[in-house]
């Protein structure tokens, strides 16, 4: 039932009065005038309200009877009554009167109608308090007005807009979270009928809706925002043109005076788009126009807005409006730096919410990754890494390649962001395997790339690589077994250059530990000018191994002063760099030293930060005796075939060989950690393996770490000696060299041991079987270099009678010229290889005799010189005799 839908009656109802000229009241209701008390008036009005509530449109007699009462209730006496209960009851009566007399109201004066509807609107403010005893009457008033669409009669009034604006503002101001859905529904019905059945929505009325979408108002009253949201959705077909006109006035024509909300247009567009993109069908082309504005700040504001529209999770704007999308992408190349920066920041959300747009973004991010502005290159990395951390599938290999390139950026901030970002991805997808093997394979190159950066000259890069290694590649906070498993398989899967970089890293850290150890030794000596000079030189060397060496010098000097004054601090530092310090002890020491140097009153302490850098570099956070034992056990499992080699993507042979290479490197930097029977038993097992390189590495580990085997582990000694003898006599040339050096390094009776090798080898030399000469010549050469005095006489005989006379001066085979400047060993005859080793033997013999005044040395030098002068043609037969 409403005023617009019902047919008009044949006669007007206005002006009808009772037969005696008096107002007719319902039975039992006395006259209502200003002569009675307010309480009595309320009592009588309630009975009137009840009468009108029970009436319907078909009660023609009653309608005629109570018409004068209807006119009376619209008098100024009631409309301006000071009592709110009176006003509420009158408003309820008037609402029912509009219902009963619809479609023609009993009031003909436009001014009177305006007064009545403004009066009713004011009463609707009572809806705000749901706990009020009168709330049900206010709800009845709202329900009645909405059901009958009473306000639609105002369309006939010239200034109806004033009424509608007041109504909308009132409803939006009173809605709150204590209202149920029925209240909201009736409000929506009331407002939507005005919008949809009117001739249009004025700007002021539109403002009364849109103001509730502005963030400040939205946060103040979420229920008014929700009401406006649903209202706009319901009336989208009608209100879209009005919205388009508003934005056209402000955005295109620049008429900001048309609305008080002009300064909030971008906020409004964002909210309207989230409510229903159809509300902005005609507005989007206007944004494309704004993207091409000459004002950089204006373009920036539009880019920020469109970034939210394109990037929101459920948005399909990029596919629905390709011209706008392409125009927006063009802002990645904007001349205005903040615009480019905002575009790059948007890309992260877009990649995460719309992976299908990654292809469009890739080319633009590529250009921006080379942007002249450091901040933009930095944010390109942040954008890609953020998306990749959410889901690696969101970024393609090309995008990851941009981050890879930036690890070599000219700016430290950009390099650092790229390196740290890649490290985080490696830890997430390779170490923790959060997205399966395919994802791990996609970023498996990261470990190599990060370690390659250790080759850079910058100390900052080197320090960051060390930090990344300790926190991301092989996290130091893992339990020992897990940490060593991580290191074991990492080392086995690195490329050769990465392996060299990692070895260099350990070497540099070990060198720095040595410098600090020497500094502490200087503190133990009496003060002198020479001591101070040596200490200063050592401090300068240490400073070069820290960030910003210029500033580091001052901090290192300060630290040195603290060390001189604090004996307990020195003892903590000595424990930290001690060869026997465990990883757990190192962690405690670092924390203890940092605690002592901390200053609670100084939140940012550059001195403490610099000391922490030093401690992190020298602290053995990965390797100790327990760690070496765990590594050896892992290698044993690989040898036995019970390890997880295949699951880790490494073949057992590769795991064993690289595992021994790893142990070999660690034997240089952490030799004390190897000293255990269990470790040496495993290494003995490796010596018996058929793989030549494995055995060679094992011998070298014994050589580097076995200084106490003879005294502490006699059983290992008795097993090791025959194996070393066998390798020196019949092993590969490399094994023979290491075996001789191992015997010389770790045994006290080395003269006896070397003699037992020298004598049988020197007697068995036979130039007619050159392939069996190479290992004996290598062993003899190294023995003569290590023990020149012991074997001076027999070596002189071997050199004169066999090496020169029998081997170098005689050719037993004829070689063929291949035109190459150099050939690999496998393409050269055994005789040539034997002669090469013979010359090396001469050089090693000379090195051993460098401190002796020997005629043999002089004659050997003349021989080598003659070889160079004659280009190898010692017999003057116009061929290279010695080759």
UniProtKB/TrEMBL annotation:
<dbReference type="GO" id="GO:0007064">
    <property type="term" value="P:mitotic sister chromatid cohesion"/>
</dbReference>
<dbReference type="InterPro" id="IPR016024">
    <property type="entry name" value="ARM-type_fold"/>
</dbReference>
<dbReference type="GO" id="GO:0006281">
    <property type="term" value="P:DNA repair"/>
</dbReference>
<dbReference type="InterPro" id="IPR011989">
    <property type="entry name" value="ARM-like"/>
</dbReference>
<dbReference type="GO" id="GO:0005634">
    <property type="term" value="C:nucleus"/>
</dbReference>
<protein>
    <submittedName>
        <fullName>Sister chromatid cohesion protein PDS5 homolog A isoform X2</fullName>
    </submittedName>
</protein>
<dbReference type="InterPro" id="IPR039776">
    <property type="entry name" value="Pds5"/>
</dbReference>
<keyword id="KW-0132">Cell division</keyword>
<keyword id="KW-0131">Cell cycle</keyword>
<dbReference type="GO" id="GO:0051301">
    <property type="term" value="P:cell division"/>
</dbReference>
<dbReference type="Pfam" id="PF20168">
    <property type="entry name" value="PDS5"/>
</dbReference>
<keyword id="KW-0539">Nucleus</keyword>
<dbReference type="GO" id="GO:0000785">
    <property type="term" value="C:chromatin"/>
</dbReference>
<keyword id="KW-0677">Repeat</keyword>
<keyword id="KW-0498">Mitosis</keyword>
<comment type="similarity">
    <text>Belongs to the PDS5 family.</text>
</comment>
């Amino acid at each position: 039932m409403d005023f617009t839908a019902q047919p008009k009656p044949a006669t007007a109802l206005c002006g009808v009065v009772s037969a005696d000229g008096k107002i007719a009241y319902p039975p039992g209701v006395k006259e209502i005038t200003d002569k009675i008390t307010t309480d009595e008036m309320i009592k009588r009005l309630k009975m009137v309200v009840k009468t009108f509530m029970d009436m319907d449109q078909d009660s023609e007699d009653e309608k005629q009877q109570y018409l004068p009462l209807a006119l009376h209730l619209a008098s100024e006496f009631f409309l301006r009554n000071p009592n709110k209960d009176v006003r509420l009851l009158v408003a309820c009566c008037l609402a029912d009167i509009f219902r009963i007399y619809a479609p023609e109201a009993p009031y003909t004066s436009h001014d009177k109608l305006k007064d009545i509807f403004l009066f009713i609107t004011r009463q609707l403010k009572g809806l705000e308090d749901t706990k009020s005893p009168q709330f049900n009457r206010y709800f009845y008033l709202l329900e009645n007005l909405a059901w009958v669409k009473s306000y639609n009669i105002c369309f006939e009034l010239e200034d109806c807009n004033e009424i509608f604006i007041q109504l909308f503002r009132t409803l939006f101001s009173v809605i709150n979270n204590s209202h149920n859905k029925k209240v909201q529904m009736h409000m929506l019905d009331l407002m939507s009928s005005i919008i949809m059945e009117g001739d249009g929505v004025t700007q002021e009325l539109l403002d009364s809706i849109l103001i509730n979408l502005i963030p400040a108002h939205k946060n103040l009253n979420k229920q008014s925002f929700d009401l406006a949201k649903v209202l706009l959705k319901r009336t989208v077909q009608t209100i879209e043109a009005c919205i388009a006109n508003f934005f056209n006035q402000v955005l295109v024509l620049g008429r900001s005076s048309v609305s008080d909300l002009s300064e909030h247009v971008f906020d409004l567009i964002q909210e309207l788009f989230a409510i229903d993109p159809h509300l902005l069908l005609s507005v989007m082309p206007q944004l494309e126009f704004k993207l091409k504005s000459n004002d950089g700040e204006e373009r920036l504001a539009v880019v920020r807005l469109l970034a939210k529209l394109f990037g929101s999770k459920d948005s399909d704007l990029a596919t629905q409006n390709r011209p706008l999308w392409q125009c927006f992408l063009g802002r990645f190349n904007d001349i205005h730096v903040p615009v480019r920066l905002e575009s790059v920041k948007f890309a992260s959300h877009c990649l995460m919410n719309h992976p299908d747009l990654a292809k469009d973004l890739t080319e633009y991010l590529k250009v921006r990754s080379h942007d002249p502005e450091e901040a933009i290159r930095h944010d390109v990395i942040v954008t890609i890494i953020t998306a990749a951390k959410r889901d690696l599938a969101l970024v393609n290999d090309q995008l990851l390649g941009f981050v890879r390139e930036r690890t070599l950026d000219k700016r430290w901030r950009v390099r650092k962001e790229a390196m740290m970002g890649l490290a985080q991805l490696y830890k997430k997808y390779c170490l923790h395997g959060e997205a399966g093997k395919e994802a791990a394979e996609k970023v498996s190159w990261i470990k190599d790339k990060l370690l390659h950066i250790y080759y850079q000259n910058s100390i900052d890069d080197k320090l960051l690589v060390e930090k990344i290694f300790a926190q991301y590649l092989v996290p130091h906070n893992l339990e020992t077994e897990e940490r060593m498993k991580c290191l074991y398989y990492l080392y086995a899967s690195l490329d050769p250059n990465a392996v060299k970089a990692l070895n260099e890293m350990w070497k540099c850290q070990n060198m720095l530990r040595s410098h600090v150890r020497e500094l502490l030794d200087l503190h133990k000596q009496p003060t002198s000018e020479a001591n101070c000079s040596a200490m200063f030189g050592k401090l300068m060397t240490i400073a070069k191994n820290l960030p910003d060496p210029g500033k580091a010098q001052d901090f290192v000097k300060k630290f040195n002063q603290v060390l001189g004054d604090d004996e307990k601090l020195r003892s903590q530092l000595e424990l930290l760099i001690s060869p026997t310090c465990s990883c757990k002890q190192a962690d405690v020491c670092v924390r203890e030293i940092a605690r002592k140097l901390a200053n609670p009153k100084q939140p940012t302490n550059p001195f403490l930060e610099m000391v922490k850098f030093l401690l992190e570099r020298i602290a053995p956070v990965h390797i100790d005796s327990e760690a070496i034992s765990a590594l050896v056990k892992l290698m044993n499992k690989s040898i036995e075939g019970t390890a997880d080699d295949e699951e880790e993507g490494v073949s057992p042979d590769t795991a064993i060989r690289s595992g021994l290479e790893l142990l070999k490197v660690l034997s240089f930097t952490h030799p004390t950690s190897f000293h255990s029977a269990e470790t040496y038993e495993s290494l003995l097992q490796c010596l018996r393996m058929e793989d030549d390189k494995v055995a060679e590495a094992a011998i070298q580990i014994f050589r580097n770490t076995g200084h106490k085997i003879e005294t502490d582990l006699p059983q290992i000694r008795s097993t090791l000696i025959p194996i070393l003898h066998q390798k020196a006599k019949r092993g590969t040339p490399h094994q023979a060299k290491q075996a001789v050096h191992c015997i010389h390094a770790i045994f006290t009776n080395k003269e006896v041991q070397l003699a037992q090798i020298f004598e049988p080898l020197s007697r068995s030399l036979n130039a007619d079987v050159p392939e069996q000469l190479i290992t004996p010549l290598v062993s003899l050469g190294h023995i003569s270099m290590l023990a020149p005095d012991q074997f001076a006489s027999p070596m002189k005989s071997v050199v004169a009678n066999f090496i020169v006379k029998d081997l170098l001066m005689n050719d037993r085979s004829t070689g063929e010229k291949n035109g190459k400047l150099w050939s690999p060993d496998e393409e050269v005859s055994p005789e040539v290889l034997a002669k090469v080793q013979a010359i090396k033997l001469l050089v090693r013999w000379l090195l051993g005799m460098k401190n002796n005044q020997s005629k043999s040395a002089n004659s050997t030098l003349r021989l080598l010189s003659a070889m160079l002068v004659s280009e190898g043609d010692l017999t003057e037969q116009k061929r290279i005799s010695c080759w």
